[in-house]
Write a structure and sequence with these properties.
heterodimer, A: 452 residues, alpha+beta, Methylamine Dehydrogenase, Chain H, 5-stranded mixed sheet, 5-stranded antiparallel sheet, 6 helices, 17% helix, B: 536 residues, 4-stranded antiparallel sheet
């Protein structure tokens, strides 16, 4: 006969000295944890609620300009540097870590309409309504002068005067060309005082230009004749043109899938296109209630930020129809330019009220150093939130956003209008001969035609 | 030919121990998989399919890791008795066991004789470290079972019917003559729960922080002990009972009634979830296995029945009385009757319980309550002459989880755990028969209601309108002649949506018929009237 019973000695299961860590024993048997799904659900619910509590996206405003901010540019080689140009001709370089001006670039007579920096971050190109393109040498930040008591002003390295006012400028990736938009698209070289090439298609003003991040010779522009154009620098004529019903204010290429780009349209929608197939949008992103003024992709290519004339900033997933986040404050006016920071964790917006505003890209993210245990906890919360996100209660809390009253009203009005239109169309369809009335999907509806 | 033979030989040559270990791990990991994998055969969505495949793979990996941890890292092994030759395990006496085991374990065999204040009832904390006792004549005490010391003892000078620990050893509730009371560890009375009335049995739902009680009037009451709110108060309507047990798997409270029925309750519904006839005669005891699908009932009809709760079917009926039943963590079933205890065991795992151990107390002792001590091979007995404790090898789970229930908990750990469990407190709505239903899709019963169902619904609506009393109005407006058309109008209004729906359906059907007929079949003279499709 053999007999054994459970017998535990205290020494074996407790720590030896009080300085030691407490001993932990695990038994993963599901029977020891009854109702684990309910517990997980409650944890998911708490995690979403905590997200709401910790959602403090606004970090700070950067004050300094005396007129509305019209354009911004990131410094591709410096994470914390961002340039901004205003309607009175002032250009500033900001240190977004310290949220102050590093230096100013005076010289423009009228509004600055376009800003861009070369890929190595040494040269800043600006253009404006005074028909000049100015190249500036960007001061290199060193450890010594990081206290920032001296505000320096910088002289332009070169000034190129041209025949027409400019609306936009963008620098080529890994090259020495940059493109300006004005009466036509001009391609410039750093060292030449005249454009090396010009593209004309139609006679309307070009509003925005943007180089493709993957293929340095490819370029997209939008014009006030509501068209979106594609150019190839190696050819002497534009490649493709597509005309929409409303004009496009800004274009952004998806940095991870550089065949796709998203346009910010005057009708309050953003449209994602495949550059090979312009006849149909890949996705329509709707939520803004007024014209979308600017758009910028996150470096991850998974989401983009938009600034709108309705005084809000929104963040959209690259393949989702609705925004995941809306940022607004009482003091923020019409947003004219937005940028994602180089690491994808911040969003910078420049608006009519002369301020740049710094936001977190994830509203409830914890800033600063995150300890490993905290990180683990955050990961766990993310996982359970994802698992239970379709449950109505979790979904409701996660989706809820407070909207300013005018936007709330406008969006409900827009919804009513859309519903009425839809109903009317349905009735028209029902009362006409079958097949005689067809509805175009929204992805095609706003496109007038495509020209090769 | 030879090559294949060689291959076979190679696979056979693989060390058998390795093979065995692999088999064993696979068997063990089944428990951690929590059910079978999703069937992806008919899935057409390729993206979803690949996502699900990746997820299933992750589940498999984690189950495997858990199985490996169970096999290699667990610090202790479970207890057992191995009988040799013609020995029978149920013949082995406690004295024999005492000789075989180590000193610290043999300390767990004791009899405490307290003849004046009995009979006694007992309760253990979930970690098994502390025991609360309640003597019928008002004797309450808490003991630390690890070093067998008395923490606090008090005399409340009135009848005590039941004691139960709340979420940790700091608080316990005692059902006294008129009301239940909550005491802390120092014996200070914290609350008097007047709402409950004169309670016969108490149960505490640890995940939900609910104290459930059944009182003299057959009332079942749930109270949230964190906020003090009453989560549910229901009249069972089946008479007074002191047979109440909690199913730890899903938090459903069961009551055994004098008519032989067992009812299962949740705090959010006034009618029982399940009402089953288990015995011909009063139910005397109930117990639940911690895996949730095994219930044991004992009746006055001299039967002990074991039920499979997935089918609500008795799979085994044993003869015998039992005043108290209790399942251990490892699934041993203890039955107490008079001064005799027998422990049953499912030897083969094929749902066949047979006698495992027996123990007789001094003649004349009346066993009131049996309770297995969690994470130990110990059975605590509360009886008319005091308390006893015996060793039942193989009863307890040998390995505890520090984050679930830790017998070696320090005060700091206890405080932290209290906060954590409060954060994870489940709402009463999560109590349901199948707790794994949470987060799954509920299928609607049928797509379309049948004609009969619609008819029944319409009739119900009409009845509802008919039952409505009209307001008494002045100046002759409540005359019978005025009321009659009003009522008829209301009935017609109630019927209208159903009738309209019916008409619409008939129309649709006719349209469909017409469409199918459109193709041809019309006489030539009529074909020119057929609606032409516009050519596109």
């Amino acid at each position: 006969m053999k007999i054994k019973v459970i017998s535990r000695s205290t020494e074996e299961f407790t720590r030896e000295r009080s300085q030691d860590l407490q001993r932990v024993f695990r038994n993963y048997d599901p029977i020891l944890r009854p109702q684990e799904k309910a517990v997980e659900y409650v944890r998911a619910l708490n995690a979403v609620k905590l997200d709401k509590i910790f959602a403090r996206p606004f970090i700070g405003a950067m004050d300094g300009h005396v007129d509305a901010i019209s354009c911004m540019a990131k410094n591709p080689s410096q994470l914390k540097e961002v340039f901004s140009g205003s309607m009175d001709g002032d250009i500033r370089l900001w240190d977004i870590a310290a949220r102050r001006t590093v230096c100013q670039f005076p010289g423009h007579q009228g509004a600055v309409r376009g800003l861009t920096a070369s890929t190595d971050g040494r040269i800043l190109v600006s253009c404006g309504t005074d028909s000049t393109v100015r190249l500036w040498n960007v001061p290199v930040a060193s450890f010594g002068d990081s206290d920032g008591s001296i505000k320096t002003t910088i002289e332009p390295a070169s000034v190129y005067v041209w025949k027409n006012a400019f609306c936009a400028v963008d620098h080529q990736w890994d090259g020495e060309h940059f493109a300006t938009g004005g009466a036509q698209v001009d391609i410039w070289n750093h060292n030449r005082s005249q454009p090396v090439n010009s593209f004309v298609w139609g006679s309307d003003t070009v509003i925005s230009v943007r180089f493709n991040p993957g293929e340095p010779n490819l370029l997209a522009s939008s014009a006030s004749d509501r068209s979106i154009n594609l150019y190839d620098l190696r050819m002497d004529t534009p490649v493709r043109k597509m005309i929409m019903m409303t004009k496009t204010n800004s274009i952004a290429w998806n940095p991870m899938e550089p065949i796709n780009f998203t346009v910010a349209n005057e009708d309050g929608y953003c449209y994602s296109y495949d550059s090979r197939k312009l006849g149909e949008a890949k996705c329509v992103h709707k939520d803004h209630v007024s014209a979308v003024m600017d758009i910028d992709y996150s470096p991850t290519g998974r989401e983009f930020v938009t600034g709108s004339y309705d005084r809000t900033v929104r963040i959209f997933p690259y393949n989702g129809g609705h925004s995941r986040e809306i940022y607004h404050t009482k003091r923020m006016q019409r947003v004219f330019c937005v940028k994602f920071s180089g690491d994808g964790s911040y969003v910078i917006s420049g608006s009519d009220d002369t301020n740049l505003r710094l936001w977190k890209a994830k509203a409830s993210e914890q800033l600063g150093v995150v300890l490993p245990r905290e990180k683990k906890k955050h990961d766990y919360h993310e996982a359970i939130k994802k698992r239970y996100r379709h449950l109505p209660e979790v979904n409701r809390i996660a989706r809820h956003r407070h909207l300013p009253r005018p936007i709330y009203k406008a969006s409900s009005l827009l919804r009513v209008i859309a519903d009425a239109k839809k109903k009317k169309e349905e009735r028209r369809k029902a009362h006409s001969a079958p097949g005689s009335v067809t509805t175009k999907p929204l992805r095609k509806r706003r496109i007038i035609r495509e020209v090769e | 030919m030879e090559e294949t033979h060689n291959n076979d030989a190679l696979s056979n040559n693989k060390p058998s121990t390795e093979q065995d270990i692999a088999d064993e791990l696979e068997l063990r990991s089944k428990k951690y998989l929590r059910g079978e994998a999703a069937n992806l055969k008919g899935l057409k969505d390729k993206k979803l399919k690949s996502q699900l495949i990746a997820k299933e793979k992750l589940y498999g990996q984690s189950a495997k890791a858990a199985a490996q941890a169970e096999k290699w890292i667990m610090p202790s092994e479970g207890g057992y008795i191995e009988a040799e030759g013609i020995e029978k395990t149920y013949r082995i006496k406690q004295e024999t066991i005492a000789k075989e085991v180590d000193i610290s374990s043999s300390r767990n065999q004791y009899d405490i004789t307290l003849p004046e204040l009995g009979p006694y009832t007992i309760d253990f904390t979930s970690s098994g470290r502390y025991m609360a006792i309640g003597g019928r004549k008002g004797h309450l005490a808490i003991m630390d079972m690890m070093n067998l010391s008395l923490i606090r003892e008090l005399q409340v000078r009135e009848t005590v019917r039941d004691v139960v620990f709340l979420h940790n050893e700091l608080f316990f509730a005692a059902a006294q003559r008129k009301y239940p009371y909550i005491y802390n560890r120092d014996g200070t009375e914290l609350h008097c729960l007047k709402e409950h009335g004169s309670v016969l049995r108490l149960q505490f739902l640890e995940n939900h922080f609910l104290l459930a009680s059944t009182n003299k009037f057959g009332m079942l009451l749930y109270q949230d002990v964190t906020m003090g709110t009453i989560a549910g108060k229901y009249r069972t309507g089946l008479g007074r009972t002191n047979v109440m047990e909690l199913n730890p798997y899903n938090g459903v409270v069961s009551l055994g009634h004098s008519a032989g029925t067992v009812t299962m309750w949740k705090p959010t519904s006034s009618s029982p979830l399940v009402k089953m006839l288990c015995h011909q005669g009063p139910v005397s005891a109930l117990a639940f296995h911690s895996n949730g699908h095994l219930m044991a009932t004992a009746g006055v009809d001299k039967k002990i029945k074991l039920w499979d709760l997935r089918k609500f079917e008795a799979f085994q009926t044993l003869p015998g009385h039992a005043n108290t039943l209790e399942f251990s963590q490892k699934g041993l079933l203890a039955c107490g009757n008079g001064s005799y205890i027998q422990v049953l065991r499912d030897v083969s795992g094929a749902q066949n319980y047979s006698r495992y151990m027996t123990h007789s107390m001094v003649k004349g002792y009346q066993i009131g309550k049996l309770a297995f001590r969690p994470y130990e091979d110990v059975l605590g007995i509360g009886h008319s002459m005091g308390l006893s404790s015996i060793l039942i090898p193989g009863a307890g789970e040998p390995n505890f989880d520090s984050w679930v229930a830790n017998p070696f908990e320090t005060p700091k750990q206890r405080r932290e755990k209290e906060i954590r469990s409060l954060l994870d407190k489940l709402p009463p709505e999560t109590i349901m028969l199948d707790p794994s239903k949470i987060g799954t899709v509920k299928y609607s019963k049928t797509e379309k209601p049948t004609a009969q169902e619609i008819e029944a619904e319409m009739e119900a609506a009409v009845e509802a309108v008919k039952g409505k009393k009209l307001k008494k109005k002045t100046k002759g407006r409540s005359k019978a002649g005025k009321i009659m058309p009003k009522k008829q109008d209301a009935i017609a209004n109630a019927k209208r949506p159903y009738l309209e729906q019916k008409i619409q359906e008939e129309k649709n059907l006719a349209k469909k018929k017409q469409k199918t007929n459109e193709g041809g079949e019309l006489p030539k003279s009529l074909q020119r009237f057929v609606h032409k499709k516009p050519s596109s």
